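Sanity check

After download, print the first record. It should look like this:
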Amino acid sequence: MVKITSTRSKYVVLLGDTLSFRSDSVYAGQQAVMSVDLVNSQELERVVIPFTYGDSLLLSLDSVTLGTRTDYFEGFRFLNEDPVGKRFTVELIADNGGGSFPLPAGSGEVMRLFFTTYQYALGGRADNVDSTDGTRTVLLSSDLLTYEPAVYSGMITMRSVLRGDANGSGTVNIADVTYLVAYLFTGGPAPVSIQAGDAAVDFQVTIPDLTYLVDYLFTGGPPPPSP
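Expected structure tokens:
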């Protein structure tokens, strides 16, 4: 990486800086955490990151925090918040009056996004997370220039499950009956997702799902429907 230390006219500088939204996969209903990673060649005093996510009900934004490389930054605020349109812009400032040093050249996480996922989403569903709020672009500011990095979008994906596979083992067997009994009657852990425990397809995990699995495994009843 080359650090720019002076300005000159009639020159074009090409930088290889990149901002990447790192993909994540979770079971429906779990929280997804997306790292926003930056490769920067210049020492940065300010970073502006707009982002938008999906056009479905799959994701809802819980919170946004500084990343591991920027956890000492003094300034962190939203320049734009549009929950209905799912468009946001965040500004990160290294020195906001306290004298913190600029972000050194390097690579790694500068921001982190936390999403709640729709609990009834089917496995394999996904939403993109990208870098625009409709009016702003990603901006990196050093003491000599402000510029845009290349940006790579990310994706939050729901992990696929078998309906009736309450313990998430990959097969539907007697262990799932035992698992549901523990969950329903003795305070055991919940299925990995509602879909995994919902053998009867009634959008909840209750005694009829246990009955359905017992019927399937021991008396020749129908298998749980495909997702």
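If your output differs, re-run the checksum step. Summary of this record's structure: The longest helix spans residues 174-185.
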